[in-house]
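Reminder to self: tokens first, then the designed residues, so the page reads top to bottom the way the pipeline ran.
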């Protein structure tokens, strides 16, 4: 979808919160302080039912493209795959007499890759029982059973991996997490992917604690061709920024408002209360918003630089929350929709 570009709108608000950027696809137009930017794109005019269909198709399209782009997942988990390559060596000349030794070393390989002790023991003991029962009679049988065990864990507890955005426009996505987790970068990559699928994206810059947060988001806006709402003033409140961004998104026909937030630990009561205020603020503009808050889905980032990709499995098992996307590189296209089967094939090639 072609979008007109403009300089970022800066709202003199008391607010802190999400942000995003627009790339300059067309000549820039300058606007006064709080003037809304209307890009030269067609608005979506449809009923609630039509909006539901739009978001459902969008989620499915992203999921389907993930299945056809497994190479990025494969390369992104190369370090974890190298860690687990020892399993192939262990099973190559496996025989029944070596069962205990092989399973002990397999257990170590899983732990080193950060599957976690509970999942690791569960998988290994299941394999041991099947071997002793005569169900697994060769190395390839054991590896297939290992892959199926991991896939079963992922699909039972985290099967809703499609991006679910509700049924009202604009859909509001609020991204939360700890400091340095990659929230801003993930938002930029998510905006790029959604925009390429035809969605009209507005970003809201809500991280007012970090000095360079807005600047970073503006760079991402320029890279992705999306529009951004930024607050002016050092003491802006996230709830005000988000409220203004969602209001503009509603008035100007945006499909999705992506909201960045300041990093925080869940143990900090005042900062968690700030998130409650943000949710209430956007809910007053669009009933039921935000549509996606952190705990309804997970984005696991920086996995390409780690050999501990097994954390995907342990996180899903421990929390029962589906992984929506995984970060497998630094490029704008390197936020991949999570596909359990592709993941298992990538780490156990």
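Designed residues (349 positions):
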């Amino acid at each position: 979808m072609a979008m007109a570009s403009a300089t970022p709108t800066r709202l003199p608000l008391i607010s802190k919160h999400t942000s995003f950027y627009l790339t300059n696809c067309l000549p820039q137009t300058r606007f006064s302080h709080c003037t809304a930017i209307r890009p030269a794109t067609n608005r979506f005019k449809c009923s609630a039912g039509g909006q539901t269909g739009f978001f459902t198709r969008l989620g499915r399209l992203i999921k389907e493209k993930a299945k056809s782009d497994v190479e990025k997942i494969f390369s992104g988990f190369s370090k974890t795959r190298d860690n687990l390559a020892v399993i192939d060596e262990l099973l190559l000349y496996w025989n029944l007499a070596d069962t205990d030794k092989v399973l002990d070393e397999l257990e170590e390989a899983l732990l080193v890759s950060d599957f976690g002790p509970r999942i690791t023991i569960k998988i290994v003991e299941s394999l041991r029982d099947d071997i002793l029962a005569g169900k697994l009679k060769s190395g390839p049988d054991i590896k297939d059973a290992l892959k199926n065990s991991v896939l079963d864990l992922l699909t039972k507890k985290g099967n809703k991996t499609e991006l679910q955005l509700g049924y009202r426009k604009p859909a509001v996505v609020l991204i939360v997490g700890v400091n340095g987790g990659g929230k801003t970068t993930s938002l930029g990559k998510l905006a790029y992917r959604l925009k390429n699928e035809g969605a009209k994206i507005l970003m809201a810059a809500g991280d007012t604690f970090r000095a360079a947060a807005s600047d970073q988001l503006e760079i991402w806006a320029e890279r992705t061709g999306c529009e951004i709402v930024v607050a002016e003033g050092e003491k802006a409140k996230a709830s005000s920024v988000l409220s203004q961004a969602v209001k503009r998104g509603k008035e100007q026909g945006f499909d999705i408002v992506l909201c960045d937030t300041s990093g925080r630990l869940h143990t900090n009561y005042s900062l968690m209360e700030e998130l409650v205020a943000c949710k209430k603020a956007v809910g007053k503009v669009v009933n039921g918003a935000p549509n996606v808050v952190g705990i309804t889905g997970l984005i696991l980032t920086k996995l390409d630089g780690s050999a501990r990709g097994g954390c995907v499995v342990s996180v899903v098992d421990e929390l029962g929350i589906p992984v929506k996307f995984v970060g497998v590189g630094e490029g704008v296209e390197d936020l991949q929709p999570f596909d359990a089967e592709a993941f298992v094939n990538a780490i156990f090639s």
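Confidence is low (pLDDT under 50) at residues 1-49.
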